[in-house]
Amino acid sequence: MNHRPDDRRDNAQKLQSMVQNTLENIDKAEESMAYTDSEEQLESIRQKNERRKDSIESFRQEIKDESQS
C-alpha cells in the first residue's frame, strides 16, 4: 500500500473554499425559508445554519493556524 506524504501546501486554500461553499449554503438555505410555512422546517434550517456558522469559525481558525506554521 502506498502512503502519500502529508502535503499541506494548499490546506489554507482548500479551507477558504470550504468557507465560501458553506457561506453559499447558508444563503441558499435562508432563501429557501421563504418557500415554506412549516415551523418545523424553518427551525431545522435555522439550526443547520447555526452549525454551518460554527464550522466557518473552525475553518477560519484552521486557516489562521495554517498561515502561522
Automatic annotation (TrEMBL):
The lineage of its organism: Bacteria, Bacillati, Bacillota, Bacilli, Bacillales. Induction: Expressed only in the forespore compartment of sporulating cells. Belongs to the Tlp family. Residues 30-69 are annotated as: Disordered. Residues 43-69 have a biased composition (Basic and acidic residues). It is found in: Spore core. It comes from Rossellomorea marisflavi. This is Small, acid-soluble spore protein Tlp. Its main location: other.
